[in-house]
Amino acid sequence: MKQYRRTMTITFESDEWMDSPVLMEKFSSYLHDDGVSLVSAYHYGDVDDKDYGLREVKRVKSSYDILLNDKLAFTASYQFRARELCNELIENGWDAEYFERTEESTKTEWAEAPGSYAFVDSDEFDGTMTTETVYPSLLYKLDGVQLCTKILRNNDGSFSLVFQITKDIHSIADRKSIENSIVTVPAADMRAIKRIVVSVLERISDDVITHSVDCTTEILSSANYVCSKETIDLVMGEEE
After folding, report:
1. DSSP 3-state of 209
2. From CA 138, how far away is CA 131, in angstroms rounded?
3. Rounded distance between C-alpha atoms, residue 141 and residue 139, angstroms
C-alpha cells in the first residue's frame, strides 16, 4: 500500500505583533473562541473551555518549619531536607521536630496553548473531527482522505499554518483521480480554517500581515513534486 501526502504550509509575517508576554496564550484563546482549538498531538475526546482564555489558578505552596525545643529555628523548602535536618539534630542531642506549613494563593492568568494541532467542530465542516487517528484530524470517509492541521509560532516570530492531507492507496493507476481527491475534497475546510487563522492574526498584529505558500505532494516510496498554482488557489485564491 502506498500513500499520497500533500503538505501546504502558509507562513504569515508581520513587522509588529502585539507587544504581550502572553501572545501565544491570547492567540490560542481567540482561536478557540472562533472554533479552532489548539490541542496536543495525543489529545483525546472533546476540548474543554477551561483550557483556554483567562482562568483562575489556585496554587498551594508548602514549606517545612523545623522546631528546636518548641521554638522555630529553620524553614526548609522540601520535606526530605526537613527530615534530614531533624534526624541530624536529634542524633546530636537536640529536641527537634518539623511541621508542614501550606499557603494558598489564587491568581487570574491566561491559559497556555495546550498544543499546536487544530481541533474543530465537525458541525461546521465537511470532514468529521476525530482524535482516534495518529494526530487529531478531519476525516472524509467517502473518499478516504484525512486532513491534519497544525498552527505554529516560528522562532523568527512568524506563524505557520500547516495542512497535511493524506490518502492511502493500493495503486496509482488512476493518478489523476487520486490527486483530484486530495486537492478538492478538503479544500473548503482548509479555506474555512485559514479564514479563522487570518482573522485572529489580524487581532494580534499592529501592522500589515503578509504570507507565503509552500506546497508539495509526495507519493511515499515514490516521486515527489511541487503542487500546481491552480491547486494552491483552491485554498488561497480568495486572497490573490
Report:
1. strand
2. 9
3. 6
Tell me which DSSP letter residue 227 carries: P
pLDDT for 124 equals 84
Indicate the SS3 state at residue 155.
coil
State whether the Cα torsion 216-217-219-225 is positive or negative.
negative
- Relative to beta strand 137-140, strand 128-130 is antiparallel
3-state secondary structure of 50: helix
Q: Are 191 and 240 in contact (CB under 8 A)?
A: no
Q: Name the percent of the chain lying above pLDDT 70.
A: 93
CB 7 within 8 A of CB 88: no
The answer, yes or no, to whether residue 75 has pLDDT greater than 80, is yes
pTM: predicted TM-score of the whole model, two decimal places: 0.75
**What is the rounded average pLDDT of the residues 20-45?**
94
Among 106, 44, 50, 98, which Cα is nearest to 76's? 98
The count of other CB atoms within 10 Å of the CB of residue 15 is 11
pLDDT band at 138 (very low <50, low <70, confident <90, very high): very high
Confidence of residue 53 (pLDDT cuts 50, 70, 90): very high
